[in-house]
Amino acid sequence: MRAGIACLVLAYVLSQFYRAFLAVLSPVLIADLGMTPEQLASASGLWFLAFALMQIPVGEALDRVGPRLTASLLLAVGAGGAGLFAAAQGAFAIKAAMVLIGIGCSPVLMAAYYIFARSFSPAVFGTLAGAVIGAGSLGNIGSALPLAWSVEQFGWRGSVAALAGVTLAVALAIAVFVRDPQRVAGHSKGSVLDLLRMRALWPVLVMMAVCYYPAAGLRGLWIGPYARDVFGAGPEAIGRLTLVMGLAMVAGNFAYGPLDRLLGTRKGLVLGGNLICALCLLALWYWPALGGWRTAALLAGVGFFGASFPMVIAHGRAFLPHHLVGRGVTLLNFFGIGTAGLAQIVTGRLFAAVPPDPPAAPFSALFLFFAVTLLAGLAIYLLAKDRTD
Question: Which of 226, 244, 251, 286 suits 143 as a labelling partner, its CA being 20 to 30 A distant?
Fold first, then answer.
């Protein structure tokens, strides 16, 4: 089991890499392919939307087929998408590649969560979930300064082509080493509609819809154009700033996991952390051109306190019936990733609509959008029932 989980974690490293690498690649894609920031935002959003739309069939497959085939076959599709990305000659091919990569990455985290939910005590689900995301966030780090170095040395096409090969190798390793948990008798009964009828899940689903996309949107795309347009940063400086935010997200994922048992509340932990995240976003909105360590610290605050994703899933997991665990965790993931994709598209249009006078103005609008929507979600999440297993 350990080897299989390790393979899934490695696949999740790649998933984190792919969702964030456009922040570093954006300058070279603009220069080589003539893409605009709005097109890049759409490409990033399509990754998230493809990922999200796959969650319902992935949940069905986890419950009916098991995580081994589900994850290995779809990740191989993602490898093909990375190959297409490396050969792309324009915006359309980049967008198509991001769709295929999103499909490929869609099952890997939920496959690990499915194994945890079926094979371990519910009391440790949040800690295990956070540990996987924390370890997988090495991909977030890899898509920062290391990717910038690789692009400098080997070009963006060579770097992404190598990633396609690595992705295919990991897909094969999952097929060999992952072991499916024992099937649950009567596992086919029930559906996503049964889950949506559970009112206890509703405020948790709303929280899932808003907790992830501020950090994902900034780290996955906007931090690169923000540093370039407002502060005149080059690829190396962008790599350093994305690395700082990526490290903060890793630390946040590891910190959230044990805190629910230490504090005795999941709801309170999620509320407090996301409130601080919203305050960091409001500070970036009010002072968008601070620069230096203060801007880096605020972006790191968004990354650290905005890393509540696994804890919100753990909160929702506590309400799920055993035979619908696969469909339940993927439904939660659908709300988190789907809104991240929509937010990228919306923020791309918002960015294009705000005149860059001064250059920080469009980014200030983005920070305000992230902050206001997060605070609105927190207001609804106040109605959630706390549960810590």
Answer: 286
- pLDDT tens-digit map of 160-211: 999 999 999 999 999 999 988 876 655 456 677 888 888 989 999 999 999 9
Per the structure, the complete domain to which residue 266 belongs is given by 2-178+190-381
Which helix (H) or strand (E) covers residue 377, if one does?
helix 361-381
- In-domain check, residue 389: no
Element spanning 221, H or E: none
Whether 258 is in a domain gets the answer yes
Residues 119-128 have a mean pLDDT of 72
CATH number where 198 lies: 1.20.1250.20
What is the percentage of the chain residues whose pLDDT exceeds 70? 96
Range 56-89 burial, b when 16+ CB lie within 10 A, else e: eebbbbbbeebbbbbbbbbbbbbbbbbbbbbebe
How far, in Å, CA of 119 to CA of 113, rounded?
10
Closest CA to 286 of 364, 379, 192, 360: 364
What's the whole-number mean pLDDT along residues 346-368? 93
In a domain, 387, yes or no: no
Taking the C-alpha atoms of residue 372 and residue 375, their distance in angstroms, rounded to an integer, is 5
**Cβ–Cβ under 8 Å, residues 21 and 177:** no
* pTM exceeds cut of 0.85: no
Cβ atoms 224, 23 nearer than 8 A: yes
pLDDT (0 to 100) of residue 122: 67
Those residues whose C-beta lies under 8 Å from the C-beta of residue 104, and which sit 6 or more positions away, are: 74, 75, 76, 77, 78, 79, 80, 81, 167, 171
CA angle, 18 then 72 then 169, to 5°: 65
Q: List pLDDT tens digits, range 221-236.
A: 789 889 989 998 887 7
Looking at residue 348, its pLDDT comes to 87
Query: Is 183 inside any structural domain?
Result: no
- Going by the DSSP 8-state scheme, the letter that residue 90 receives in this structure is S
In a 3-state reduction of DSSP, which class is residue 327? helix
| Angstrom distance (rounded) from CA 333 to CA 218 | 19
